[in-house]
């Protein structure tokens, strides 16, 4: 266990035979919390590495069930949350590596107290002179990494608090927007969220700029002075400075301001980019593999695994693509499930089925179960027309769909059974006229 150096008293006051400082003593300016920092960083990194997959799974499960506006709000919250996790992971990994290197330097210093022995090096005289002038001593390097590690430790929590504030603002805006949209019965959720987020971000920023420009010229106690004072109080509590301010303001004012802001904005930009890239890779929108000359596995000449229930694993379970039981059918029927996509199908239903609103109103009336059945039949008929199915180019006009909830994913949609008794062995193709059209090959 290392112990800290204790300053020696003046020589005149030093008693004879006083013990010398231990040879493995830490530098006197060492951060006293370095052991806790190592413990916390190790535990946090281990836990955080598990969370991105959890967040991905929650978003994948929720997104297909949401309408257009709620899905846009959820996507913003998802990106912010992933950004927060990446900021935490990167920050604590950097801290853990820097602090581990600091421990190695301290251990090296306890073994080799004299540091670099230049006279024993095999460098040429010119190189040795240059390196000896520029290379810091072991003690200086230890102190630098100690200070760097402690600063990174504080920056991690500062950045995370800033991002969590954004997530909280988005959640509050989303809740208020949902309440407003329910009251007025219109699709106003996304605009309300946007305006609330803009107000929470731009209004405090504008008050701060105004204070810097004219605050010193205002008469204390005057109307303008009181307005800025009220705005400052509101900024203090809205921005969470009671908890977040001491660390953030210390970091900003103790270092060069421009360098601090550049580092903060640069770190946030990297984390946001990582969030977008990881999401696009998971959704197969981009690929890091070297298959540039090989077309995608979809369309007329491809096979998409998401079209087959026995191949939908991981996040593919929540894909909104229609699917059948397998690419090789051994059953007497093809079991076709078409998930309902509120984000797009709501608008298509409203445009394609003029009688839908009237049937929904009649279902709320005194007729009861009979009216509900009629309304369900109208919706089912509309969905059947929207998702027109053909088999090997022949329209399946007699195909009957029923409402269904897929048990493994919880997705709701319509389910139909296509008989295969008269079909020949070999390759067959199901085509759905959905937007975009879906081609599902299978083999008997």
What this model shows, in words?
This protein has 444 residues and is of the alpha+beta class. It is 56% helix and 8% strand. The strands form two sheets. Strands 3-2-6-7 form a four-stranded antiparallel sheet, with no helix packed on it. The radius of gyration is 33 Å and the shape is flat. It contains twelve helices and seven strands. A hairpin with a 5-residue loop joins strand 6 (427-432) and strand 7. It has helices at residues 34-48, 51-62, 68-111, 125-134, 138-184, 189-214, 223-238, 241-254, 257-282, 342-352, 356-363, 369-386, and strands at 333-339, 389-391, 394-395, 401-405, 412-419, 427-432, 438-443.
Point out poorly predicted stretches: 1-18
Q: Per the principal axes of the C-alpha atoms, what is the gross shape?
A: flat
Mean pLDDT: 78
Structural class: alpha+beta
Cα gyration radius (Å) = 33 Å
- Mind summarizing the main beta sheet? 4 strands, antiparallel
Number of helices: 12
Strand content: 5-15%
Number of strands: 7
Give the spatial strand order of the biggest sheet.
3-2-6-7
* Termini gap: 71 Å
Helix content: 55-70%
Brief write-up:
With 444 residues, the chain is α+β, with helices and mostly antiparallel strands. The protein contains twelve helices and seven strands.
Characteristics:
alpha+beta; four-stranded antiparallel β-sheet; 12 helices; about 55% helix; flat
Could you give the topology of this structure?
Layout: H1 34-48, H2 51-62, H3 68-111, H4 125-134, H5 138-184, H6 189-214, H7 223-238, H8 241-254, H9 257-282, E1 333-339, H10 342-352, H11 356-363, H12 369-386, E2 389-391, E3 394-395, E4 401-405, E5 412-419, E6 427-432, E7 438-443
Antiparallel strand pairs: 1-5, 2-3, 2-6, 4-5, 6-7
């Amino acid at each position: 266990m290392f112990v800290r150096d204790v300053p020696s008293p003046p020589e005149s006051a030093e008693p004879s035979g006083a013990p010398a400082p231990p040879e493995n003593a830490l530098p006197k300016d060492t951060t006293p919390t370095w052991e806790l920092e190592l413990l916390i960083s190790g535990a946090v990194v281990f836990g955080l590495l598990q969370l991105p997959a959890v967040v991905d799974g929650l978003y994948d499960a929720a997104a297909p069930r949401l309408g257009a506006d709620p899905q846009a709000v959820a996507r913003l919250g998802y990106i912010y949350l992933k950004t927060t996790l990446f900021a935490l992971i990167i920050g604590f990994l950097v801290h853990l590596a820097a602090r581990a290197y600091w421990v190695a330097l301290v251990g090296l210093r306890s073994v080799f107290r004299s540091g670099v022995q230049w006279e024993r090096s095999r460098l040429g005289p010119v190189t040795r002179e240059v390196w000896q002038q520029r290379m810091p001593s072991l003690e200086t390097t230890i102190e630098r990494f100690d200070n760097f590690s402690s600063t990174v430790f504080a920056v991690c929590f500062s950045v995370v608090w800033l991002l969590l504030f954004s997530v909280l603002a988005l959640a509050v805006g989303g809740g208020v927007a949902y309440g407003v949209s329910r009251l007025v019965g219109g699709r106003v959720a996304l605009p309300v969220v946007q305006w609330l987020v803009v107000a929470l971000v731009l209004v405090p920023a504008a008050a701060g700029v105004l204070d810097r420009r004219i605050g010193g010229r205002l008469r204390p106690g005057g109307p303008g002075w009181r307005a800025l004072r009220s705005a400052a109080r509101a900024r203090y509590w809205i921005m969470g400075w009671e908890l977040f301010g001491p660390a953030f303001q210390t970091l900003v004012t103790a270092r060069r301001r421009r360098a601090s802001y550049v580092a903060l904005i640069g770190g946030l930009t990297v984390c946001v980019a990582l969030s977008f890239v990881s999401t696009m890779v998971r959704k197969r929108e981009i690929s890091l593999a070297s298959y540039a000359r090989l077309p995608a596995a979809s369309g007329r000449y491809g096979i998409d695994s998401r079209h087959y229930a026995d191949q939908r694993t991981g996040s593919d379970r929540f894909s909104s693509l229609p699917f059948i039981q397998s690419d090789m059918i051994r059953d007497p029927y093809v079991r076709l499930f078409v998930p309902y996509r509120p984000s797009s199908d709501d608008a298509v239903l409203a445009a394609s089925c003029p009688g839908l609103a009237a049937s929904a109103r009649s279902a709320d009336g005194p007729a009861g179960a009979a009216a509900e059945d009629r309304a369900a039949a109208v919706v089912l008929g509309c969905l059947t027309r929207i998702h027109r199915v053909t088999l090997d180019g022949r329209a399946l006009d007699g195909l009957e769909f029923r409402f269904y909830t897929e048990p493994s994913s919880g997705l709701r949609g319509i389910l139909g059974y296509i008989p295969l008794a008269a079909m020949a062995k070999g390759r067959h193709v199901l085509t759905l006229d959905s937007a975009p059209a879906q081609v599902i090959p299978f083999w008997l």
